[in-house]
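Why do we bother with a discrete structure alphabet at all? Because it lets us treat a fold like text: something you can write down, compare, and reason about line by line. To make this less abstract, here is a complete entry for Ferritin-like protein. Read it the way you would read a sentence in a foreign language you are learning: slowly, and without expecting to understand everything at once.
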Amino acid sequence: MKLLNIIDQPHAIDRRAAFGELGRTLGKAATVAMPLAAFFAPGRARAQASGDTVVDVLNFALTLEYLEAEYYAMGLDSDGLLTGDMRETIALIGQHETAHVEFLRSAISGSGGTPVEKPAFDFTANGAFANIFSNTETFMAVAQAFEDTGVRAYKGQAGNLMGNGDVLTAALQIHSVEARHASMIRRMRGSKGWITNAMNTTGAAPADAVYAGEDQVTQLGVDVTSVSSVDRGQITESFDEPLGKQAVLDIASLFIQA
């Protein structure tokens, strides 16, 4: 199975303009947020047909794990980019992602499926992140986006695995580790370990695809603000939202060449 069967074509997006607009909108806060600007515009990625099989879901997960494993490997190979404790932590996270890749390939083959081919990646996103392997802040900001997207992606596929308890359990075991990765990277960047209301740009700037929907306060049909004295912003921090396959592919396709 080729990834081109999943993703139609790359985005047509003026990412440099998005950088500039974000900088003008957020001012000093853009120092952290700017590397995420390329996620702002919706893409034209094409999801697989409805009714995904377990193999479809596993291949979807495998594509994301390929992306993360390759990203960290390239970061570690970049002279001077990662040093000290940060380098040690990224190396460990990279090993986890490699283990996920190997496990998913084996699981897919063992079920009689064909593991998706590893695509070619362009982590500069066609030049939007030209300094991604020379600027530590840019590298870590995109790493945060990848990990936060991965956590939401696994959550978004849980319903498709409900009929297979063993596979669902394995996916949840990976999901929780991805959440730990996201939390650790956030802390290394000087942020809280969870997605905060401040990360949602609703009303202040174009909605960021990575965090779209994270300002949700209704759970199981209940408006949590109506039954809780907790601040609205903290309520949004108390619940993580899933991200659908289409939205995830829109994000991933920014970095996939073929």
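What the structure line is telling us, in plain words: Helices lie at 15-26, 30-33, 54-76, 84-110, 136-157, 165-188, 232-238, 245-252. Residues 3-255 form a domain with the Ferritin fold (CATH 1.20.1260.10).
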